[in-house]
Amino acid sequence: MTRKRFKPVFNTLTKAVFIYSVLASGATFANMTEDEAAYVSTPPVIDGIADDDAWKDVKWNVMSSQMWGTLPEATDFSGRYKLRWDERALYLLAEIQDDHLSDTYADPLERYWDDDCLEIFIDADGSGGDHFNNYNAFAYHLALDNQVVDIGPDENGDAVAQLYNDHVDSAWKRDLTPPFLVYWEAAIRVFDDSYQHGKDNSPLTLKKGMQLGFMLAYCDADGKDREHFMGSHEITPVNGDKNLGFKDASVFGKLILKGR
Ligand SMILES: [Ca+2]
Ligand SMILES: [Ca+2]
Ligand SMILES: [Ca+2]
Q: Nearest-CA neighbor of 120 among 205, 186, 33, 44?
């Protein structure tokens, strides 16, 4: 198989066709699913060990919506997650069952969706809308080696796959007893649409009552390319396609920051 480095640059015509197709699809209406995250005064230690007080008595959310590919058996992939927040970050604990962890492409910018990865979708102001080549929202692909990748405008405004490693700290570990679950913890700093890649940027200070756009998904590859893409929110297909989160924040759910 030819492994082509993914360095997308989209011309004006392609952008125009994409924006038209999003607008024409009616996909600009926000996904009305609402989730809540509770404030935490002592944030979890990001070490892939889920024994933090921050995770005790917090509701699990499932990742059972098929976004692309075939529907996996539970042993092939199943996943669920918890969320907390404080002023500095949104905290995520994902519990993943996956029969084969796969990092085929060493280059983090090459076909990163065809390696196992946790995909964290964040829209700071919950506006929804196109985020393909702008910073209206992010679709962070969290790789097994903890690299963080998304498509966004580079210094010239071109849409390219780039690293955003300073946006997300993460760590994962396997539980050592069957079914050998993976616990993956992340601290996600939230950036709004004033973000400029390669410049000095400050994350938002999170506050009670904020309403973010949020969604979580897992790209499951088992030694070859991606087979399953399972997420937390049901997506209304556009022309049969549910794989929309990487470009359209309107398919994200709403996350309300509660407490303090
Ligand atoms: Ca921990
Ligand atoms: Ca699998
Ligand atoms: Ca896998």
A: 186
Q: Do residues 203 and 190 lie in contact, with contact meaning Cβ atoms separated by under 8 Å?
A: yes
Which-ligand-closest: CA of 222?
3
Q: Note the ligand closest to the C-alpha atom of 72.
A: 2
Burial of 199 (0-12, 13-18, 19+ CB in 10 A): exposed
Name 137's Cβ contacts closer than 8 Å, sequence gap at least 6: 121, 122, 123, 124, 127, 129, 131, 213, 249, 252
pLDDT per residue as tens, the chain (260 positions): 334 344 443 444 444 443 434 433 434 444 557 899 999 999 999 999 999 999 999 999 999 999 999 999 999 999 999 999 999 999 999 999 999 999 999 999 999 999 999 999 999 999 999 999 999 999 999 999 999 999 999 989 999 999 999 999 999 999 999 999 999 999 999 999 999 999 999 999 999 999 999 999 999 999 999 999 999 999 999 999 999 999 999 999 999 999 96
Tell me how far the alpha carbon of residue 203 lies from the centroid of ligand 1, in angstroms.
22
Residue entry with tokens 């919950």: 126
- Structural contact between residues 252 and 128, judged by C-beta atoms closer than 8 angstroms: yes
Cα(34) to centroid of ligand 2, in Å?
A: 28
Do residues 171 and 48 lie in contact, with contact meaning Cβ atoms separated by under 8 Å? yes
Domain architecture of the chain: domains with CATH: 31-193+200-258 (2.60.40.1190)
Between the CA of 216 and the centroid of ligand 1 the distance, in Å, is 19
Question: Are the beta carbons of 214 and 92 closer than 8 angstroms?
Answer: no
**Cα 172 to middle of ligand 1, angstroms:** 9
Distance 6 CA to ligand 1 centre (A): 33
